[in-house]
Amino acid sequence: MLTVGEWIDKVHEITDELERNAEKELENSVKKAQAYKEGYVQACEDFNKRMRRAISNEQG
After folding, report:
1. Do residues 10 and 2 lie in contact, with contact meaning Cβ atoms separated by under 8 Å?
2. Alpha-carbon torsion 35, 40, 46, 52, what sign?
3. pLDDT, tens digit, for every residue of 4-18?
4. Would 2 disulfide with which of 6, 16, 38, 41, CB 3.0-4.6 Å?
5. Distance (Å, rounded) from C-alpha 26 to C-alpha 21?
6. Which element (helix H / strand E) includes 49?
7. What three-state secondary structure class fits 2?
8. Do the Cβ atoms of 15 and 23 come closer than 8 Å?
9. pTM of the model
């Protein structure tokens, strides 16, 4: 049987682990969102270049 002090240590250990897991999940979510944003911006830039090229070709 655990003493009160051991239970308190166990609670802190579990809490620390949950906090670390939440931080890791947040970091992964942020990285994923950043990669999505960068891909989206690149797609917009590519579209813009193609549109400019098409307009330029149409105008002579």
Report:
1. yes
2. negative
3. 999 999 999 999 999
4. 6
5. 9
6. helix 4-59
7. coil
8. no
9. 0.70
